[in-house]
Amino acid sequence: MLKGERKPWNSINFVCVHDGFTLADLVTYNKKHNTANGEDNKDGENHNNSWNCGQEGEFASISVKKLRKRQMRNFFLCLMVSQGVPMIYMGDEYGHTKGGNNNTYCHDNSINYFRWDKKEESSSDFFRFCCLLSRFRQECESLGLNDFPTAQRLQWHGHTPGMPDWSGTSRFVAFTMVDSVKREIYVAFNTSHLPVTITLPERPGYKWEPLVDTSKPVPFDFLSNDLPERETAVKQYSQFTEADLYPMLSYSSIILLLCPADEKS
Q: Taking the complete model, does pTM exceed 0.90, yes or no?
């Protein structure tokens, strides 16, 4: 294929794959735990690009476990808003763990099996988030383009509109995408350990309305239309969004939708 002729769908995007940690283990372990493979923990990759969020292993404090769930939502959101074909590692949609084993080729047991029982347990938590976000991606015309977006559709932002910080120390990035179905979407990632209040792009006659905020507890991490408390949750942020502002917690990501200013939430 000639240079410059590649399309978004030529790219397979993924966070985790079979040669490495599962998504749940990616946020739970800093080091591999492959003793069960019978090779004295010498097999498997040592460079896992993982972070246990402060404590190694499944037995951790409540605050660490909450951060891990938030990080899982962040990773999945990043995957779902990327141009190209998303690939999801089997079991990541419910948080499958292999106990930190990143080389499970030799196991014909529950380590590698799809755990339907665990999937049912998480149906009101991460699995719900994954289902709703996958559906959102399918609904958005702008997230499955045949050609890479141009400046007519895509704009990059920093803490203020139109001013992205591409430096090596930056821990924030955001973008807006014009969408023929959703009008326009705003996506932001705050990977810093500090919270930040961002300024949203001004759209006269319209307002930004929260849809996804990974820092929020279930079910407010995704404000689906069938959520009974949705209108109340949206109103809680109206004092910010009406001023084109949005407060983001540390290690969080958001999706906002552009709606007519006079439209009821």
A: yes
